[in-house]
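Let us work through a complete example step by step.
Step 1: write down the sequence.
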Amino acid sequence: MAHIDYYFTVLSPYVYLAGTRLEQIAAGNGASITYKPLDAGALFARTGGVALPDRHPSRKEYRAQELPRQARKLGMPFNLQPAHWPVNPAPASYAVIAAQSAGGGDMGALISSLGRACWAEEKDISQDEVVRACLSAAGFDPALADKGLLAGAETYAANLEEAVSRGVFGAPFYIVDSGQRFWGQDRLDDLDAHLSGKL
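Step 2: predict the structure and record it as tokens.
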């Protein structure tokens, strides 16, 4: 069975736009997934990336066109300038880590719900009540938002170190146990083709 390590930040619009396609691709190819939320700001700083406020105007202008264009292509609601972004991603990330450890729910639905809350529903995903609602909607115990904070913090930090060591430099980023790496929601078709032996 193939395995995918999925590195992401809950704040990324591109992670939101990925929706649950990764889970569909994994299911279609008999692959498993490990979810590895991390601090994208720290990842950028260590791998040559540039935070959005510091990017050249041309890059910002392209982003302002590309994100709504991709959302329209995918039929997903999208707000380029959400009311609550950026916010502290740690609480939602710790909840994702706790949910993966606990099991019993739908991880893809959880990641998608957090992204939708930020980028389409004008909700603050750093707030406990929003995180609890996302956990519940994905079939997890909402109390996971209050559990395993120390373990979550340790795993969150370890995910960053692992990502840097494995060549991750953006989000979403997918690494298959074959060693093939795929960056961006617009490379999910390539990931699918690779897993099915076509690429």
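Step 3: interpret the result. Residues 57-74 form the longest helix (18 residues).
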